[in-house]
DNA sequence: AAATCGCATCGTACAGCGTACGAGTCAATC
DNA sequence: GATTGACTCGTACGCTGTACGATGCGATTT
């Protein structure tokens, strides 16, 4: 084992509901916990971005000392992994009778993409080999749906993999692309600076005002057409 | 302007061929240059990974002081951006007569993916808004080929975007997935630890022995079928 | 020959980082 | 009362990116 695996050496606190507050936190700060750490990390990432998250700042925000975090968490990498996975939770809409499988798949994948775009830092955390339970649950659901829709076992991996690629690529590309309106002027200027070296891109206005959502949906449809004929 | 833009405040050295060596480097180290910095960065990244690149270590490798780098480069971020783009250079095979456009597209995109997989750190650098000349050149080539293949102007952006997504997703996913044979045993163990909570994934052996290349190609074909009917 | 100027290099210093280590505090148990 | 285990945290170490200013150099101007 290479430092990955179960969180630090803790076993989750056992003190349920008993003491109204301990003496440790004189100003009513609740005790540290994995949940609070992850939630705080997400807040901090949302507010300050990737660079804004440091163990010291996270601990400050939680009213704790920096080293206290390390009881609940092995290292900073694990905080990132947990934050990413926590943002990818998925609650399937509870449908009694099975809707059309294709609608389910599209819904889940669009929700996936939306969840990541809601937290722009998440795209930067993707290229690490961290498969948290929520990511695995989404893949499981995807596989199950496709399988019950009649995709052959032999083609299942290709299907899952291609669809996942599409979602990942769409979020990563958009993160690297989208100028989110705050510096659209800068983009204009940048393109102008290229002045004719990339005529096709310029004339297609690829970098400027794209219908990202529509393109995502369209590519998804083509993939599904091909994968599940 | 927000610290992005043209490299630092240098204008590239003017001394062409004249002096055989200056007095500054008594042991024959060639002078610093953007090219040498970028090449050194790629070497260091290949050898030590993302975390292994620091300005001090890079300067050491080049036989220079750390702060000397900052004459040629604005900051560390720019080093990353330049390293990524430098790895994505593409030389189209010189074909006199136009081959089939689809073969050209597939070749270019497979080369793109291969280039990134050859430098595993590159996937982690994707989710930043850095569109270097080589990336733009690839997009330009892609757009031009599709356009000359008859893709309507209105559909061009969707096509470029979907194909790009596919490549990005494939490299990012693989980077986060592939256990590159060094710890395949760890993967077995990891999956065993999940013990039945993700039956579809387990039975499909999705995480273990996949035909990544074939899946990439298959998804690409589906996309091209749909995009360019 | 002397002064000036731009390019380029680099030593020092600072604030911040992740985290190893060990001492500390508390509640529950024996 | 003593012990144990869960949990917190102060200090310290080595490392980071880079701001600042001093220095050297070749070429140009005076």
Automatic annotation (TrEMBL), chains A, B:
InterPro entries listed in its UniProt record: Homeodomain-like_sf, HTH-type_TetR-like_transc_reg, HTH_TetR, Repressor_TetR_C, Tet_transcr_reg_TetR, Tet_transcr_reg_TetR-rel_C_sf
DNA-binding region: 54-73
Domain HTH tetR-type: 31-91
Gene3D superfamilies: Tetracycline Repressor, domain 2
Lineage per the UniProt record: Bacteria, Pseudomonadati, Pseudomonadota, Alphaproteobacteria, Hyphomicrobiales
SUPFAM superfamilies noted in UniProt: Homeodomain-like (SSF46689), Tetracyclin repressor-like, C-terminal domain (SSF48498)
Annotated protein name in UniProt: TetR family transcriptional regulator
Superkingdom per UniProt: Bacteria
Pfam families the record matches: TetR_C_1, TetR_N
Single GO biological process annotation from the record: response to antibiotic
PROSITE patterns to which the protein is assigned, alphabetical: HTH_TETR_2
Keywords: DNA-binding, Repressor, Transcription, Transcription regulation
GO MF annotations, alphabetized: DNA-binding transcription factor activity; transcription cis-regulatory region binding
Residue ranges, annotated region (Disordered): 1-30
Functional summary from the UniProt entry: TetR is the repressor of the tetracycline resistance element; its N-terminal region forms a helix-turn-helix structure and binds DNA. Binding of tetracycline to TetR reduces the repressor affinity for the tetracycline resistance gene (tetA) promoter operator sites.
């Amino acid at each position: 084992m290479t430092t990955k695996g179960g969180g630090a050496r803790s076993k989750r606190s056992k003190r349920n509901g008993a003491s109204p507050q301990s003496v440790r936190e004189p100003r009513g700060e609740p005790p540290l916990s994995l949940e609070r750490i992850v939630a705080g990390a997400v807040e901090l990432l949302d507010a300050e971005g990737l660079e804004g998250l440091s163990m010291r700042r996270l601990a400050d925000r939680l009213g704790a000392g920096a080293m206290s975090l390390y009881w609940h968490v092995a290292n900073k990498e694990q905080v990132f992994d947990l934050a990413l996975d926590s943002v990818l939770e998925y609650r399937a809409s509870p449908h009694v009778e099975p809707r059309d499988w294709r609608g389910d798949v599209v819904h889940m994948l669009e929700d996936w993409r939306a969840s990541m775009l809601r937290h722009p830092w998440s795209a930067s955390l993707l290229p690490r080999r961290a498969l948290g339970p929520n990511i695995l649950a989404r893949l499981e659901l995807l596989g199950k749906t496709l399988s019950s829709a009649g995709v052959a076992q032999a083609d299942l991996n290709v299907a899952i993999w291609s669809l996942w690629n599409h979602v990942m690529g769409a979020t990563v590309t958009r993160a690297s692309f989208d100028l989110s309106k705050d510096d659209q002027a800068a983009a204009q200027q940048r393109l102008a600076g290229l002045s004719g070296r990339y005529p096709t891109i310029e004339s297609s206005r690829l970098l400027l005002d794209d219908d990202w959502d529509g393109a995502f949906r369209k590519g998804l449809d083509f993939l599904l057409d091909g994968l599940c004929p």
